[in-house]
Amino acid sequence: MGRRVVVIGGDAAGGSAASQAKKRQPDLDVVMFERGRATSYSACGIPYWISGAVETESSLVARTPAQHRAAGIDVRMRTEVVGIDLDRRVVRWRGLEDGGEGTEPFDDLVYATGSVPMRPPVPGIDAAGVYGVQVLDDGAALRTELDDGSVRRVVVVGGGYIGLEIAEACRVRGLEVTVVDLSATPVGTFDPDVGATIADAVRAEGIELVLSDGVAAIEVGSDGRACAVVTASGRELPADLVVLGLGVRPNVQLAREAGIPIGTSGGVAVDARMRTGIDGVWAAGDCVESWHRLSGQRVVVALGTHANKQGRVAGINIGGGYATFPGVIGTAITKICDWEAARTGLSSTEAEAAGYSFVTAWVDSTTKAGYFPGASPIRVKMIAERRSGRLLGAQIVGREGAAKRIDALAICIWNEMGVDEILSLDLSYAPPFAPVWDPVLIAARKAFEAVEADVRKL
Amino acid sequence: MGRRVVVIGGDAAGGSAASQAKKRQPDLDVVMFERGRATSYSACGIPYWISGAVETESSLVARTPAQHRAAGIDVRMRTEVVGIDLDRRVVRWRGLEDGGEGTEPFDDLVYATGSVPMRPPVPGIDAAGVYGVQVLDDGAALRTELDDGSVRRVVVVGGGYIGLEIAEACRVRGLEVTVVDLSATPVGTFDPDVGATIADAVRAEGIELVLSDGVAAIEVGSDGRACAVVTASGRELPADLVVLGLGVRPNVQLAREAGIPIGTSGGVAVDARMRTGIDGVWAAGDCVESWHRLSGQRVVVALGTHANKQGRVAGINIGGGYATFPGVIGTAITKICDWEAARTGLSSTEAEAAGYSFVTAWVDSTTKAGYFPGASPIRVKMIAERRSGRLLGAQIVGREGAAKRIDALAICIWNEMGVDEILSLDLSYAPPFAPVWDPVLIAARKAFEAVEADVRKL
């Protein structure tokens, strides 16, 4: 028998790890367990499938079980791993359809169990009509319910990326939508001034925002279904359907039970090659913690792009190659109705928490030359370290063509550039694409002026 | 009398220099000479004004003479500087309207004369109906002629950025357009494979391309107007109007006559602070040469974005501050019909000329997640140094949302990143903005694989 690799979880991280390992070393026996009905799908695409922008569930699947099998991977669908025995080097599994049970031995193990949605511990949270949106099957259930036509009012709990994306999806379907969030502005990973712009955009779309308020209970009707959300301040929000969009936490239960070390942030601890603290046990994706290159802290960031990269790194290393995952800097992007918002590096709050002292600057400009048809508003905000002028963070909000500019600033941060050098960068210019000073460069100019002004005060 | 600054040329570079110097040091006497009818305008916007996408000439003007005067700058419109006397430190000028002449003394001089269009030395080149498109007045003349309605067939000489933009503008106006270019593919600053894609896009728009052929003569009718272009291969292309889009060369005649040193590339030689070889004489914009950070050569790049930055640097330094222009890396972007194309760093030809040995890789992907509505094709090509994997150049061609991604790669090149590190970058991901592996990251993966494959061959 050849060397055996067992992969727990068949989505982005697990699927990538399995594919890369098998590709690099075709004589490996690779067994991949997936408890759901799909492999390697885009969870981030679920809101757009719910809205109808994406028509079929299968569009979201990058690689089917059959495609994985054709690549030589032994895929076990609807099969849940229920235990890991590190001494005997076996996993115990249970078939979710037939109730069958068994064990599978491994030489290498990839732990790629993803995340679980946060569920506030309030009365009624487990009632019918309360949905998480985490895996493809959740999306399918939610869509079936919405297609049924009896839902008119939706309350979304949580105003982060997923919460707002789901809210927009329901609004697109013509439903009355209310979003409840504890923060004073939605998407708390943005600074409040940027968040306020997002709030305006959301409200302009006809979505009601209930901010600085939490969920105290979910009322359940006589039919056993959720019928309203009661907030901490005592408001009662009628709901035919409640969607939880509070974010996720790493799914580490199996790892913890088995004795695989968990990091300070709550994710499985891994090194740059995605090795856990246990020899031959790897982990990747939403269940692990990553090194944040600016704060120096370990953080959990559940994003498909990281999961894919980390899975690839684990797979290459298992397959005898060498690859590392160099950490994250907190880049994120979202489309909210006709608005786009993105961030990278540290927000003001995060920069403070990390101990940085900084100045901020922002500019309102246009995505194309101001005179060019289709020029859209864009606001770029920068957070630069005092004295050094090093760019610590950036946020962009605007309309079409605005937010993807965040990548340029992410790379500036990655390379620890100062705003004085950034303002001189040779970025692309032509009227259909940018003003002669790209908004990103103007923001850097303003940030540099703020750094200089701050120095003069000393 | 205070310190006097004379600025020759009132467009992007001259206008920025004058504004910055006056802003930093309000007691400076700043005199700015401009021979045209406008200051601080967007020459890059002229094609879109010709097409009608931009409605009014005034939209293209960022700062009018009146605005400059309100900022305390003594603007002399329609006044040409005809000589520089470095010993006496005066410029000689001539009024183009009234024929008046005089001299103006200076302590500091800013040479910002821009560029002049290339004119092939062929018979008929000076006939009526042959237009350059260089300054706003050229655009006005061309527009007047097209508005007249008697033009049906246009031949554009030169298939570079400006040539194609003008060709598209004429096509948008419903004219028959033919572009003649010496190269086998248009926009010769792109590699031929990318150029071929651009050629397809241009032809699909109904523009005829005559490639690998030059202009031998312009035929002139009995009315003294150009009536056809005769190519080197003997083709006769009937034309009611001929537009020269062959690019530009630095306007250094006055500088040369005065003894201001000209560099190897043909532009005025300047250091990082935009100082020429003559004490107190500065230069900025299309008339200067810049340091190319990859080739190490001095190059002339006529682009409004550089002109603005260089003018700002000169102005800050004249005003007693400190600023430098750190050079260029050859970033450029253009919209051609519904296609977008961009480049940064070195093309294959340029990399060879600079002595680099390299591998190339490219990928076809989509601008958004493949399943997301509006996902457009994008091709990303990378040129990476052998062994080191350092990114030397990148080219992007695609439809809406494709080309501005070049900025991310420009910053990678600026920071001398290797493709192995680039593929791990924390770039923004959400389905409306990118596939889970951004095309830029996939291209880096492919380039890294090419670097590895090349190493194994050694």
- For the biggest β-sheet of chain A, the strand order reads 3-2-1-7-18
Count of distinct structural domains of chain A:
3
The percentage of residues in β strands of chain A lies in 25-35%
Q: Provide the low-confidence segments of chain A as ranges.
A: none
**What's the gyration radius of chain A in Å?**
23 Å
Family (chains A, B): Belongs to the class-III pyridine nucleotide-disulfide oxidoreductase family.
Pfam family, one (chains A, B): Pyr_redox_2
Keywords (chains A, B): FAD, Flavoprotein, Oxidoreductase, Redox-active center
Cofactor (chains A, B): FAD
What brief labels describe this structure?
homodimer; 458 residues; FAD/NAD(P)-binding domain; Enolase-like, domain 1; five-stranded parallel beta sheet; 12 helices; 27% strand
